[in-house]
Design brief:
Length: 238
Amino acid sequence: MLPELLSTHMLSSLFTIVGTIALFQFTAVFQRKLNAIWLQPMLVSILVIIVILLWQDISFERYFSSSWMLNALLEPAVVALGFPLYQHLETIKKQWKSIIFVLLIGALIAIISSFVITMLLIGDYTIAVALSLKSVTTPIAIAIAGQLDGNTAITAFAIILAGFFGALVGPPWLRYIKVKSPKAQGLAIGAASHAIGTATVSNISYEHAAYSSLALIASAVITAFISPFIISFLATLF
């Protein structure tokens, strides 16, 4: 039934876009009502869409071509994350040295620990490169992984996994270890879980959103500069 409904491109696009948005919003409403952080709308939507596509034997290419409009909105949506950052710009200017230092240390730890642990347990350079870039936003991570002969498919998967894990586990874990500052929580989630984590903590407060957006951007830039040197050096040790 569903494949026949998607027979025309216009009807296909309309049905796909409306259905995807409705699924996301439906899950978001349930998450708020149940106060269940594990009911992450983006994660649930992806899983449900995968099941539907497999059930109806619809290719991902067909779904993607029908939902092109949603994909086109991704860029302005990311830009919109910069609005909370602008609102707290004056405060951030006074703390920028400390923020950059903290994010630099975080990026070093993420790259080194992931690469070393992967090489010790798996011993595969391409996978080690892919996993060492898991906390960076997708376009930058995939570009760096490609330049360093890493497995870009694993990089993309690891980024999604890190994003969802940070979005689901990050806020309650930070509260559990008594990290109560919105600034610290935002920086931690943005640095470790990029856009997905930032979108999640944006629902908590504008301050969370501002510092998470800052961490997302700064961590990506820092990683782009240091990762080729760090990974190349670590590779010589194995």
